[in-house]
Structures are given as C-alpha cells and as structure tokens.
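Teaching assistant's notes for section 4

Start the section by putting this record on the projector. Ask students to predict, before seeing the second block, whether Endonuclease/exonuclease/phosphatase domain-containing protein will look compact or extended. Collect guesses on the board.
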Amino acid sequence: MINKMLFWNIRSVRSQRAFERLMDLNRKHQYSYIAILEPFQSPVELEIYRRRLGMANAKTNMYVKIWIFWSEDWEELESMDTIQQLTCQFCIRGTRETFKITAVTIERLELWEDLEYVASTTTCPWMVGGDFNTILNDAEKLGGLPVTITETVDFAQCLGGVHLMNLGSSYNWWNGRIEGDIIFKRLDRVLGNNEFMNMLPDTEVPHLIRQGSDHAPLHVECNAENNHIAKPFKFMNFWTKHSEFHKRVEESWQNECIGTPIKVLQTKLKRVKMALVE
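Reveal the predicted structure now:
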C-alpha cells in the first residue's frame, strides 16, 4: 500500500534535534518512504541510520545529497540518479501496482533536464518531492524583494513540460527572522503527474512544524480520506500554555489551500489538529 511518505531537507542528520524529530515522526506515522535531503554525512553511515529508523531498505544518490528509505512492502524495480535527483520505480509486493518517486534537491538547469528525461520514460504514477530551491510565481513568496520573471521562468516551463501538479500549500521555508525582513517561500514541494492524481486523488501534503532545520518536513498522506479510521479529536486546555502554541496554530492556519470555502475550512482545521498533536 502507498500510505505515508516524508520529504525533508534536514540540513544534516548529525543534528541531534533534527534526527530525533525524524525518528519521532517515523514512530508516529510509520512511513512507507522517507527522503532526506542534504544529510551532510558519509555514505558509509547510511546503514547505521537505516537501522536507527527501523526501515527495511536505504539508498543514496551518487553525490550523497539525497538519502531515501523505504519499507519492506515495496520492491525496487529500477533506479536512476544524478547529482540533484534520485528516481526509483517501485511495486507493491504481491501486486502489479508500479509507481515512481523522485527525490530532488537544489535548483539548476540540469535538474529540469533530468525531470524531463524521467517524464519521457514514465507512463506509471509518478511523484516528485524535495527542495527545489526556487519558486514558481510571486504567490509563493511573502516578504523580501519582488519576484522577477527570470527567477521563475525555467521552473515554470519545466513543470508545464513534464505535466506535474503541485500538492500541498505555500510557505514551507522561513528565513528565521522574527522582526524586520521576514521572508517566507515555497522552496520545498511535492508534485504528482496525472496518473498519480488519478490513482490517489485524496493525497494531502501538510507541512509540519520546523524543528532542527529551516525547512518544514513535507508529510505526504495518500488516500487521506480512505486509508484510516478517524479518531475523535480532543482539545487539551494545557496546550494553550505551551510556549509554541500560538505560533503553531497561526502557521498552520495561514498556509494557503485551494477549494470551496467548506473544503478550505476543513483542510485548515485538519492542519491545526496535526500541528497540535505533534
């Protein structure tokens, strides 16, 4: 089953705070797939981190900028990697269901060419996620200097050419300032092709609270409406006394979402709930 996945520019797995957060998230959500960007660690350490996470399989790209882990329920069929991306085709064991996942980091022209190549060889459902280090338009930036066309044109043309659609909301990167030149951007994102959207139309990508990195973890929940039994949510009054309570609620509520007014309200309430229970 394609259930839950995580993409995160962790900015070093050696950061105890960040890696403990990663382990906590995996214990809670039992991810089928995890992509760690910029681990800043030797590839010989990959097996150690795989065991610590309790994942069945692990792989890195050629320049060790991307680590991926996946569950024993998935079988790797083939892979292709370059300096900025790692693409794997998987199948669910015991089925003929195949799909591709591409983890990416850093924006350069070569990455757009890599994505165009993968798209030209792909007929199955395909998801792409990671740190693109660029934005698509001025709606994906808040604060700072105005966005120019030259910043966005290559990326926009690439996404149009490979027919990938955005999942999730804006503003998952923050420059860390509380006052003055505060800047929010959508540097990290998850995208899917038409086949992926048809296979898993209820996929949601809430952005979790930043901790240990200036990038928010992208939590991918496939078939969010159908894959689990809803549990009653109880609001705990003591949450309001937590030092990060207002920050978490405000950050979750302000994230952009698209849909009817009722759907927008439902999505925002769900994000606030997830932020609180984290």
